[in-house]
Amino acid sequence: MGDLMEMARALLDYTLKLAAALQRLHLAAMLVALAATPALAFDFARYQAADLDEILAKPRPQSGLDLYQANPLRLEVKLISYGETCAVQAIPQTMRMLSFDKAQIDGVQVTRCIKVRSAKGKEALLFIQDVVRAHLPGEVKLGGSVTLFAIHLFTTPEGPGLLVNEFEAPKAAGATDKTAMNPPCGCGTPEFHPGIDLSNDTEGAPIRAVDDGVVVRVEQDEAASVDAFGIGRCGRYVVVKQSYPNGRVAFTRYAQLGRIAGRDGRPIEVGATIRKNDRIGETGPSKTLHFEIRPVAPGGTRTDAAWQARYGNDPSMDWSRYDPVDPKTFDADVFGDRKRKP
């Protein structure tokens, strides 16, 4: 627990305001020093409704495999098993065949499958990222309904190769939509908020880096647009690139800053090396920090024409290609295959 509290102090020198919201912990420990409005950090809207029975009924090759283009699918199923042995070695092999880059391939850690049942009662094994599978037992009972957000990579004679990137458990009856109650900081909407908002009582409170990295973007325009069209403004922000021992990469963004400055008030510049706990800025008049994490991972990469037209020629905006994840559930040590400090 001492290490978790150390991580909490790494983000902001604030007082403790969170408790129950941190059930799925790890990186969340960095955030316990602030009150946070719940956020939909995963871009669920990109995943289109699909019928698992129709996918299972599609023609299969007699041998080898048929490649698909990682189509994002939303599937309604029953969960039968939390972990099954399966041919996980097919995932990196297929991703290479689909021309995913090395960082994207290395960003996927899959060691088991889950077993699910379709609406018509057919059972299937689905690949699932380890960091996602770890949370299933705490949120979905065996035999219970669950919504899976998966990409279709390939089909073999045995069936489709679907990789689950996220899940959503059914809401309890009478549950309140907290995103509607607490609109985000302006960097997003109640429908899509790419991170988490952390508030403080004091303007000018120091903001500290959560991990080692290199600064890849410094935005000084307080009216700067968010990275997607039509969902608000993020103000001044800093983006830091974290590189991990296993070659994986994640980007962290600190937005709605009042001032961007390091130790002794010195400016923060692109290319600067940042260490964990280093000061990178201060809260602004809103007394709110917008914080997000964007790991480089397949199925979460924006390649549409709108993004290309806006940022395709700007290397400092490459981080915005990747979907954000929930900072409260992201475990940097697991993602980066990094030994956790005792």
Characterization of this structure:
This protein is of the alpha+beta class and 342 residues long. It folds into two domains: 190 residues, Glucose Permease (Domain IIA) (Distorted Sandwich), CATH 2.70.70; 124 residues, Beta Barrel (OB fold (Dihydrolipoamide Acetyltransferase, E2P)), CATH 2.40.50. It has nine helices and 15 strands. Strands 1, 8, 9, 10, 11, 12, 13, 14 and 15 form a nine-stranded antiparallel sheet that branches. It has a five-stranded mixed barrel with strand order 3-4-5-7-6. The radius of gyration is 20 Å and the shape is elongated. The N terminus is likely disordered.
List keywords for this structure.
elongated; 9 helices; 15 strands; OB fold (Dihydrolipoamide Acetyltransferase, E2P); nine-stranded antiparallel β-sheet; 15% helix; disordered N terminus; 2 domains; five-stranded mixed β-barrel; alpha+beta; Glucose Permease (Domain IIA); 342 residues
